[in-house]
Design brief:
Elements lengths: L14 E8 L7 E7 L5 E3 L5 H4 L16 H27 L9 E5 L5 H8 L3 E5 L3 H11 L3 E2 L12 E7 L8 H11 E12 L4 H6 L13 E2 L2 H10 L2 E8 L3 H14 L4 H18 L5 E8 L1
Helix pairs in contact: 2-3, 8-9
The structure holds zinc ion (ZN).
Length: 300
């Protein structure tokens, strides 16, 4: 384990305990989240060392096999996943234009997993490179879709200022060297390019409702527990600014379903749907407090 002595956002050194949460998916161990007394940023502390983190990703399984409604939930899950993939692509096309021979567009996807997102982008005409630390996922993406997927260390060898879009879909909360990684991405981005960061939102209604049972704390895999203010402050420090915030409307339902299971031992589907819905309705009213959000970030 390692203990952070300085806040990753503002560098201050005084923290207060915020929550103790259990790792519900892998180890069943308890972990602590602290809050920076200066800027309010919440982060996992102490946390496993980078070399120890791997074991907490083993047997990570989100939809229970013992669940009798598995069939329906799985089908819905895959339907939603397909829909959100198309939405992600549409947002990118809207933000940076459709790629053509005259206007080629490049995407670097960090944490590309099994490659489903980059596959849809490739078919839309983008030139794509993925970064994926897990070897099995990397091999699967290369074999299934013929994608160019590289190891994390390859980031150091890439051409500076070469990407129009850099995407991190639910990745930034997992990155041990947060500031170093942002500096690196900024270097790889074209001066007019965009960084797309999707992360859970600790200040959403479902987070406040489920507290330590909120599934998107996902300790110890999630090292940081961002609010929109934290994202703004973190990127501001690196000379970047939030251009837009887009909602991820399905995450509140998904996260509420998992949180129900952690809280009560089984999923109360009605309750999960009600909390998910309430979270979305509140977010629509107050502007930007969805369960998970997409931040479109540019150079200042
Ligand atoms: Zn701080």
């Amino acid at each position: 384990m390692e203990t952070l002595d300085f806040c990753p956002v503002c560098n201050a050194g005084l923290f207060e305990p915020f929550l103790i949460c259990k790792d519900y998916t892998v180890s069943r161990e308890d972990f602590q989240i602290v809050r920076c007394k200066s800027c309010g940023f919440a982060f996992t502390n102490p946390r496993p060392l980078p070399k120890e983190l791997g074991k907490y990703y083993k047997s990570e399984e989100y939809i229970s096999h013992t669940d009798t409604r598995k069939g329906l939930v799985n089908s819905l899950y895959h339907l939603v996943r397909k829909y959100t993939l198309i939405k992600k692509l549409q947002s990118i096309v809207r933000l940076c234009g459709r790629p053509s021979k005259i206007n080629p567009r490049s995407i670097l996807d960090i944490g590309s997993g099994t490659g489903v997102f980059l596959d849809i982008c490739t078919r839309a005409g983008f030139s794509c490179i993925g970064i994926e630390p897990d070897q099995d996922a990397r091999t699967s993406a290369m074999n299934s879709y013929g994608l160019d997927i590289r190891e994390e260390t390859e980031l150091d060898n890439m051409t500076k200022k070469s990407f129009d879009v850099i995407t991190l879909w639910h990745v930034l909360e997992h990155v041990p060297f947060l500031n170093e990684r942002i500096i690196q991405l900024k270097e790889l981005l074209k001066p007019t390019g965009i960084v797309i960061v999707a992360v859970p939102n600790r200040s959403s209604f479902d987070a406040k409702y489920y507290e330590k049972f909120w599934a998107a704390y996902d300790l110890p895999r999630h090292l940081y527990h961002f609010t929109p203010k934290d994202i703004r402050q973190l990127f501001d420090k690196h000379g970047m600014k939030i251009e837009r915030i887009l909602p991820m409307r399905f995450d509140s339902f998904y996260v509420s379903m998992l949180s129900e299971r952690y809280k009560r031992g089984k999923i109360n589907y009605l309750s999960a749907v009600m909390i998910g819905l309430k979270s979305n309705l509140k977010a629509i009213r107050n502007g930007s407090e969805f369960s998970s959000q997409v931040y479109v970030i540019k150079n200042r």
